[in-house]
Amino acid sequence: MRRANVLSGVILAVFGLVMLFAVIPWEIGAGPDGMMSPRLVPSLMMVVVVGLSLLLVINNIRARPDDLRSDRPMPISRGEIAALIKISAVFAIAIGLYLWLTPLAGGAALVFGALWVLGERRPIIYAVMPPALLTAIWFLFYKVLGTGIV
User: With DSSP H G I counted as helix, E B as strand and the rest as coil, what are the percentages for the chain, rounded to 5?
Assistant: First the structure.
């Protein structure tokens, strides 16, 4: 596990550096004067990826051999993998509904699906949360920011 962590950390760090110094500057324009650059958020995310990757590498290089015994259980359980697959399916369905129907259908499917997959079974939450979230997002985009979602 230690060797795999170091290798994956190095690969992710190289990926982040390539994105930071090659892909982002080539593919995303600088933006107009007086505005934040559109490169800002992607660059910040790649700095975070590189930082966490280096932290993974350093922690696994410095780890004591007894910390990395192979008789420990796997770090990711089957239940967690199943939850990841379920929530990924919810996102895929929501994106499909967003693209092929309306943003409202995609947003509602995302909220309802996430609640269901995460185990929420109280009807009051299903009745209150989706309309409240979708109304808040509508208000933010259309009234506060003055832009459209689509």
Answer: 75, 0, 25
